[in-house]
């Protein structure tokens, strides 16, 4: 079906989607506080006759629509807003001071509810099970982790999961994505360098942790360039460094924090190991020591090749070739969608939401012209994946 055909197909759905997106926009809630948002989603899914589930320790919601034998496809939408002050201007601007839907999650929820409206109304056009994952705290602790741990991917087992995100670098309704890696894994590094304090005038009596830390930082900055192929992206950033108490005391301990970003699992464990061995080796060569802790964060997002091909094909049929933009590179930013993909294939794509603004800033705006193609694409992708041989 073309976009024009979907326009009549979604004639009754779209006014409600727009109304919901504006209501959600006017009432943003930060990660971990999405109580009102959860109530709206439960009410909307319930009104459609869709089975609903909630989760412990977060405000996540799952909707389940069973429609006979077949595959199970899940659609994920994130729920939380950001600590950003929205400027005046919109009739439905944020009514919560200092909180704003500046990452488009209001639109993501409305799109998912739109696909729930259409798919529940047209059960004669498909068979199987569709689930909707409304994920809280995407911007903070990643509510998806709790939802997956509490079994959202089971009973029935999810065969494919789809995620969609607004992208303000493209015109409304542009499909922007790629197969394979989309975003990287992120791990936190905590590094402590230990020496031995003494009087600043008699350095021979101690071991200067600040001098060691300087060498450690320089040595760490050679790891990405010297131990990893230039064709395998990785980043190591030391973001904080602190130590010392006075101008005339040789410092005994320096603490640093950093972030490590990688795509492949192999590079992720290689780099973590080399950070520890390099820091310790340098520190010990200088009569000190180093302790390194790598705290695992988000995993990489990888788009399944065959599922991606089906969705891109559906997008091309719907939007036309000129609206398909193949992303040339993955990003080393992170996405909590990774939790849903840990053992389940899936596809994460961006939908152009109108140019001229930026995510996570007060300027962010969604051009509502992207909502109709957004709902249609979610429905078409679900139908394609349910039918896949
Ligand atoms: Zn965001
Ligand atoms: Zn987001």
Question: Can you put this structure into words, describing what you see?
Answer:
- This protein has 389 residues and is of the alpha/beta class.
- The chain folds into 2 domains: 270 residues, Aminopeptidase (3-Layer(aba) Sandwich); 112 residues, 2-Layer Sandwich (Alpha-Beta Plaits).
- It contains 11 helices and 16 strands.
- Helix 4 crosses helix 11.
- The longest helix has 21 residues.
- It is elongated and about 80 Å long.
- It starts with a helix and ends with a helix.
- The structure holds zinc ion (ZN) (2 copies).
Roughly what is the average pLDDT, rounded to an integer? 97
Unreliable residue stretches: none
In the CATH hierarchy, the third-tier topology of the largest domain is known as Aminopeptidase
Query: What proportion of the residues form beta strands (DSSP E)?
Result: 15-25%
**CA-CA gap between termini:** 21 Å
Helix content: 25-40%
Q: Report the principal-axis shape.
A: elongated
What gyration radius follows from the Cα positions, in whole Å? 24 Å
Look at the helices and sheets and give the structural class.
alpha/beta
Q: In CATH, what is the homologous superfamily of the largest domain?
A: Zn peptidases
């Amino acid at each position: 079906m073309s976009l024009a055909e979907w326009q009549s197909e979604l004639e009754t759905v779209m006014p409600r989607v727009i109304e919901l997106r504006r209501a959600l926009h006017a009432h943003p809630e930060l990660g971990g506080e999405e109580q009102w948002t959860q109530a709206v989603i439960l009410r909307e899914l319930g009104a459609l006759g869709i089975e609903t589930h909630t989760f412990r320790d977060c405000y996540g919601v799952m909707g389940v629509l069973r429609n006979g034998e077949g595959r199970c496809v899940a659609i994920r939408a994130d729920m939380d807003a950001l600590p950003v002050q929205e400027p005046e201007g919109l009739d439905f601007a944020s009514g919560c001071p200092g909180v704003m839907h500046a990452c488009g999650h209001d639109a993501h929820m409305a799109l998912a509810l739109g696909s729930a409206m259409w798919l529940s109304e047209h059960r004669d056009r498909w068979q199987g099970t569709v689930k909707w994952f409304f994920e809280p705290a995407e911007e903070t602790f990643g509510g998806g982790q709790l939802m997956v741990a509490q079994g959202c991917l089971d009973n029935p087992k999810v065969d494919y999961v789809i995620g969609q995100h607004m992208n303000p670098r493209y015109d409304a309704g542009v499909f922007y994505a790629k197969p394979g890696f989309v975003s990287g894994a992120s791990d936190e590094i905590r590094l402590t360098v230990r020496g031995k304090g003494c009087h600043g005038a008699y350095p021979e009596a101690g071991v200067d942790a600040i001098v060691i830390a300087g060498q450690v930082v320089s040595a760490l900055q050679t790891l990405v360039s010297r131990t990893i192929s230039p064709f395998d992206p990785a980043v190591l950033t030391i973001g904080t460094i602190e130590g010392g108490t006075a101008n005339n005391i040789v410092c005994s301990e320096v603490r640093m924090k950093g972030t490590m970003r990688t795509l492949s699992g192999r590079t992720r464990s290689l780099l973590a190991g080399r950070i520890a061995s390099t820091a310790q080796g340098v520190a010990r060569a200088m009569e000190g020591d180093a302790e390194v802790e790598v705290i695992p964060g988000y995993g990489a997002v990888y788009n399944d090749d065959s599922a991606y091909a089906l969705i891109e094909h559906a997008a091309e049929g719907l939007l036309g070739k000129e609206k398909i933009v193949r992303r040339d590179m993955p990003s080393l930013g992170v996405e909590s969608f990774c939790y849903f993909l840990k053992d389940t294939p899936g596809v994460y794509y961006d939908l152009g939401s109108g140019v001229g603004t930026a995510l996570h800033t007060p300027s962010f705006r969604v051009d509502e012209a992207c909502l109709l193609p957004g709902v249609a694409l979610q429905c078409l992708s679900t139908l394609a994946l349910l039918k896949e041989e």
